[in-house]
């Protein structure tokens, strides 16, 4: 399963903010530059993460982005479910497939998708934010 760019950017933002020292913040522009992501795209991800209650954003002098979630409690699977579009892995509805009403492939892919999310549920933001490559950026 390939994650959308939106999910990728959202996870990068959370991982980066999880590595910041207490009281430290980052700006949307800093993160967009650091991760080579268009500002508008990163801003949409930050907005989503803020609405979910995982990121706190403050404006003005001394403002910026801070992690609002507890890294050891926020499950990666929860984040991915919230950022990935709903639906099946394979699009059987828009195509005229004669198997679409009883397709073993669709069921198998659905089972695989559930297993994917279940595996991600086994990891927290704290688990994935500790990678050596990310530590070098913080």
UniProtKB/TrEMBL annotation:
Top-level taxon: Bacteria
GO cellular component, one term: cytosol
Keyword DNA-binding carried by entry: yes
UniProt cross-references to Gene3D superfamilies, sorted A to Z: Winged helix-like DNA-binding domain superfamily/Winged helix DNA-binding domain
Pfam families for this protein: Rrf2
Key words of the record: DNA-binding
Listed name of the protein: Transcriptional regulator, BadM/Rrf2 family
Organism this protein belongs to: Deinococcus radiopugnans
